[in-house]
Amino acid sequence: ALTVPQVAVVPRDGFNTVMVLQPDQHVRQVRVEAGRRVGDRIEVRGELPRDARVVVAGAGFLNDGDLVRVGEAPAADASTTSAPGAAK
C-alpha cells in the first residue's frame, strides 16, 4: 500500500487531499482516501502515482495550481527516515 507522511494529508471541502508537486513547480490537489495509520505515516488510496512528490510542509496553505519553491530537506539522523519522493 502507498503511504505518505500524515502531515501531507489535508482535509478540504469534506475530502482528504494531498498536494502533488508537478515538474513545472506548481502543485496539483489530489483527493485521496485515508487508510491505516502507522507511526507518522498514513496509507492513502486514490489517483496518487507511486512516484509522486507530495508537499509535507505548509500543504494546508496551498491551492491547486500554486507555484512553489522546493527547499532542501534537512539531513535525517539515525532515528528518522524520509519517504522517497517526498518534498518539503
Automatic annotation (TrEMBL):
InterPro entries reported in the protein's UniProt record: MdtA-like_C
Multidrug resistance protein MdtA-like C-terminal permuted SH3 domain segment(s): 1-59
Signal sequence annotation: none
Top-level taxon of origin: Bacteria
GO cellular component, one term: efflux pump complex
GO MF assignments: efflux transmembrane transporter activity
Any Pfam family: RND-MFP_C
Protein name, entry field: Efflux transporter periplasmic adaptor subunit
Native organism: Variovorax paradoxus
